[in-house]
Design goal:
Blueprint (H helix, E strand, L loop, with lengths): L13 E4 L5 E2 L13 E4 L3 H4 L6 H10 L6 H4 L27 E3 L1 H7 L3 E6 L9 H14 L4 E5 L3 H13 L2 E7 L5 H9 L3 E5 L3 H14 L2 E3 L5 H17 L7 E5 L4 H15 L8 E7 L4 H9 L24 H11 L3 E4 L1 H13 L6 H15 L8 E6 L7 H9 L29 H16 L1
Parallel strand pairs: 5-13, 6-7, 6-9, 7-8, 10-11, 10-13, 11-12
Antiparallel strand pairs: 1-2, 1-3, 4-5
Helix pairs in contact: 5-6, 5-9, 6-7, 9-10, 10-12, 13-14
This protein binds ligand F0G.
């Protein structure tokens, strides 16, 4: 990659504790004084703006890069490099992440009771989830800092992404995942990309506990979302969204909540865009969790967000099966600052919302569908008004969890579960595969019936 293709000095970043405000060394994850999480700040922006550029120069530079064939310019993350930490051009590991589409969801809007609904589909990233946008930055930092090993605990998407970026960057990777509680599609990705993959007989929170100790004792760089460089990369999804909206903020952005880093990243991006004069107001950022994995919702409702109430997490949306989210304080700050809210949704509501998003030809994995399910509730409660513009952040591709989709359409997703009695509402959305004789007449007959049904 020619080095002159990328500007030499971009932004001088610093790590700062979100609790006590003290600065920290670049390869740390927690403050050594108070153990709180770290975030990246750019002190130089206050005087001259990123790379000395004003909002209109930044906007046109970022857009212009879309016509370039240089790998960092082709990345929907690195084309925004003025708002990212400085990484030397030759250290950048990119699989051309970002540049994801925004789709209007006409039928889902109607079903939720609003006029303007959009989905920013982060599942359209190279490994099929939003994790790639953060991973390109954090894996590049790991390589630049001289690490040979990277590691993560994961519900499946972080591990798929990390394994791919490590492989592309010539790094070795170690994955810890909860045994039997992630989709086989995600597991297969981490195997395919060459990670050492360990299924631990515990849940995600248990995997995190083990890994935190491993990285203390071994020269292995942690790529979980407490890693502040990941948050920086994930920020770019919001910059790109606003670019796609011609820098006019929507009224609401709705994000699924698991470990709560993505909502933090989107919120940080919007805060920075406002500080930089790229937008004039913040959209309300709301976080939706599954009822069975709802520590943030419980904490907000039961103690106003004063302290986290960890839960034993259980949901079929395995990506967000997390009971003790690391980034809850960051997410809380974003929700408060933007005047957003939190909501929780049931397993049936998730399944229905996923089918509705699929029926618009978009599709997503169950964890992403909590956004639409949550939106419906927020409209009913009057938090979202019918004439407001809403963007759902869809985090994972529909093929990430084909098992869930197949079971849903065959009608056995909730078999033997307490929810089985409530599945009546799902019937009209189910399209199980039809088994037919190989006969032209049989297929034509079927088509005729289907056509009649459409007009019935
Ligand atoms: N949606 C999907 C598809 C995810 O994979 C995740 C998290 C989330 C939403 C929640 O994002 O944690 O930033 O609040 N997956 C992680 C993983 C935990 O290991 O893949 P969050």
């Amino acid at each position: 990659m020619p080095e002159q293709a990328i500007k030499p000095v971009i932004s001088v970043s610093q790590l700062r504790c979100i609790g006590c405000g003290k600065t920290a060394l670049p390869d740390r994850f927690r403050c050594e004084h108070c153990r709180d999480l770290l975030e990246i700040i750019y002190p130089g922006w206050a005087n001259a703006g990123p790379a000395g550029l004003d909002p209109s120069a930044l906007r046109s530079l970022w857009l212009k890069r879309r016509a370039s064939f240089e790998p960092p310019d082709q990345s929907g993350v690195w084309r925004f490099r003025e708002i990212l930490p400085e990484i030397a051009a030759e250290q950048i590991i990119t699989i051309r992440e970002g540049n994801t589409p925004v789709y209007e969801l006409v039928h889902c809007a109607k079903s939720a009771g609003i006029k303007q609904l959009y989905a920013k589909h982060q599942g359209m990233n190279p490994t099929g989830s939003f994790k790639d946008t953060g991973m390109t930055v954090a894996a590049s930092f790991a390589r630049q800092a001289g690490y040979h090993w990277v590691a993560c605990a994961s519900t499946g998407n972080t591990s798929a992404s990390m394994a791919a970026y490590a492989a592309r960057g010539g790094l070795h990777s170690l994955v810890l995942i909860p045994d039997g509680k992630i989709s086989w599609g995600k597991l297969s990705q981490s195997l395919d990309y060459g990670a050492i993959t360990c299924q631990l007989k515990t849940d995600f929170d248990g995997c995190v506990r083990v890994l935190n100790e491993v990285v203390e004792r071994m020269p292995v760089y942690l790529l979980n979302s407490v890693n502040p460089y990941r948050v920086e990369g994930q920020k770019t999804a919001a910059f790109e969204l606003l670019e796609q909206f011609n820098w006019q903020p929507p009224d609401h952005v709705i994000v699924p909540g698991g470990n709560l880093a993505n909502s933090s990243a989107i919120g940080k991006a919007l805060r920075e865009m406002k500080q930089l004069g790229l937008i004039s107001r913040l959209p309300k950022i709301s976080v939706v969790q599954a009822e069975g994995a709802n520590p943030l919702v419980r904490s907000m409702r039961e103690n106003g967000g004063e302290k986290l109430i960890p839960v034993h997490a259980e949901t079929m949306a395995t990506a967000i099966r997390i009971g003790n989210p690391a980034s809850w304080k960051k997410a809380l700050r974003v929700i408060r600052e933007s005047e957003g809210t939190v909501e929780q949704v049931s397993e049936i509501e998730i399944a229905l919302a996923k089918a509705e998003i699929g029926a618009e030809g978009v599709g997503c994995e169950p964890a992403s569908a909590v956004t639409l399910a949550g939106l419906k509730k927020l409209v009913k409660e009057g938090f979202v008004k019918p004439n407001e513009t809403v963007v759902l952040i869809l985090t994972g591709h529909v093929l990430k969890d084909a098992d869930f989709t197949l079971k849903f359409h065959r009608g056995d997703l909730f078999e033997g579960m307490p929810q089985e009695a409530e599945t009546g509402t799902l019937k009209s959305h189910q399209r199980s595969p039809l088994i037919l004789e190989p006969s032209v007449e049989a297929v034509i007959e079927l088509l005729r019936t289907a056509e009649q049904d459409l007009h019935a």
